[in-house]
Amino acid sequence: MDAREKEIEKLKDYKYGFSTDIENTRAPKGLNEEVIKFISNIKKEPKWMLDWRLKAFERLKQLKEPNWQKPKYPKIDYQGLYYYSAPKSMDDKPKSLDELDPKLLETYKKLGIPLQEQARLNGIAVDAVFDSVSVATTFKGELNKKGIIFCSMSEAIREHPELVKKYLGSVIPLTDHYFATLNSAVFTDGSFVYIPEGVRCPMELSTYFRINATETGQFERTLIIADKGSYVSYLEGCTAPMRDENQLHAANVELIALDDAEIKYSTVQNWYPGDKDGVGGIYNFVTKRGLCKGKNSKISWTQVETGSAITWKYPSCILKGDNSVGEFYSIAITNNHQKADTGTKMIHLGKNTKSKIISKGISAGFADNTYRGLVDIARNADNARNFTQCDSLLMGNKCGAHTVPYIKNKNSSSNIEHEATTSKISEEQLFYCNQRGLNQEEAVSLIVNGFCKEVLQQLPMEFAVEAQKLVGISLEGSVG
Amino acid sequence: MLQIKDLKAKIDNKEILKGLNLEIKPGEVHAIMGPNGSGKSTLSNVLSGKKGYTVSGDVTYFNENLLELEIEERAHKGIFLAFQYPLEIPGVNTNIFLKTSLNAVKKANGEKELDAIEFLKLVKKKASELKFDENILSRQLNVGFSGGEKKKNEILQMSILNPKLSILDETDSGLDIDALKIVSDGVNASRSKESSFLIITHYQRLLEYIKPDFVHVLINGQIVKSGGSELALELENKGYESLS
Questions:
Q1: Is the pLDDT confidence value at A5 over 60?
Q2: Where are the domains of chain B?
Q3: What is the domain extent for residue A231?
Q4: For B92, which residue in chain A has the nearest alpha carbon?
Q5: A450 → closest Cβ in B50, B92, B107
Q6: Which CATH number applies to B2-243?
Q7: What is the pLDDT of residues A241-274, one digit of tens each?
Q8: Which ipTM score applies to this complex?
């Protein structure tokens, strides 16, 4: 076996499946007012924040869990979960990376994110979120010079309350829906980004989410504000240990782009998908929404979803500013017993707004993959345009692919296009690749990467290579 | 290098090859001619290892039992099949495919893999030798290619992989006379003391450009007659009927 084969062999099993043995501070089990107060208190939050959380909690009591989605799941016992878990060493927050618990540094190193080297080598600023808290943010100083704020959500609440108060919940309101409201009540940490007027963020900003503790939900909250004429590219990566329980991940992500600003948000989601028989894995029930608030603004979502037992999310754009642009590029890969119900919503409110949706769904094994998307053109959205392309690729004959596009059009000057295809990897294609010296797995990886090309091209360089490998690995053993 | 003894192949319980014998030595060019349904394509599929056939008999390739090897192992050991209908792979750039393929073969043989720059140099040289339009290389593999472009692309791959045994499965079908000439030039340029060819064709036309050392007539799963290149001409005049 040569080095590359060894590497692949190693990756065959979920390579992020290890857990870190670390002492935790936890909130008492269960969901109630006391727990919310505990979270708010431990984070030293001002009263307005606690009031906001409690308001969300009140609202939550009136809401019902939705169940219109295709993948069904057993009832979640919300009282059986821990809503806050943090490494004990974080009780007195370390001032620099050097003060960080070596075990945490080790964990991130194993995950391929050496925080210390990261700072120097890659030129990517990283915020690392471990269970419920942000443990380290790199490159802060350099960003500060440009007036860019990149910090944990908890810090933003304390240090930049005017921005948080103004924008938190402005895209995903407190009352939105069950999981979003749950998040508003109990969210723990996440990243906060503010790019000042006219500033082009000089590096990729990145957050790395890690669920470690058992019986713990992860509820992070991310808020990104791009002020007039600014630009930022933000990356998000996720992993979790292998556990035979299902763990809930219900994050909220809000993006706001003011006049002429652009936000590019990329996700490579590789939460633990469960084992071959579908035991365990993460429930990835995430609300992501961007508001193109100003004219000529642009928000672009790119997602590569390969992990999780169930992925249920619709990163969306509200195109409020005239001439604003929304984009959604997605690869959703489901293998074994994984399920995905994902897509986007493009809400056209302003004039001359444009949206583009490119979705690539791949199903293998016993998996089930649904694209669900909404294109909504409001009465005043003159000359709105949408282009949607949904392609599904099936491997084997026990998996499923579904496309559910909703189109609401209230303006006759709009232009909406929808294209969809479903295809299979043919035996003949595999034979052709094998005859040229590629083994079965290399052949599948090549064909699938070709299928996903339009989306992979959207990722920043450093992520594209990772994602390509991940695409191949996620499908290993699914053919032949 | 290749000895085929009493080769039989069945698919869906139907016997297609019924005891075929053939020997190819290094540097030789063999042509197999035969009517539709005589088993020509089955022979190329069985030699390259395509699944779905029940095979018996002996096939020895460089002192190894060829029938025990996987498809890609045969490719690594120098067997190349130019497909009658090359497959389309959307989204995969032709250059990338060629590089992946070449490096897979190199790796299997313990040779150093080529980096992007070395590869581009090689592929440009080969493409110009074969008078290929380089633009083909940056297009998606075989997607939207004309019949002629697909076949030329097969010959380009062959010349880059530099195989020991090239099997050309009706490469001439669907080619106009100019494309036929380019393809034949490509094959002729690849001829050497080490590389052998098995050319499967319906028509004598191709053999005017690629002069074979031996011509075999395949009818109903068996080779019924072998001879020199003059046999092709004889067939062209008399048809297969005279032999069956």
A1: no
A2: 2-243
A3: 3-474
A4: A450
A5: B92
A6: 3.40.50.300
A7: 666 677 888 999 999 999 999 999 998 888 888 8
A8: 0.96
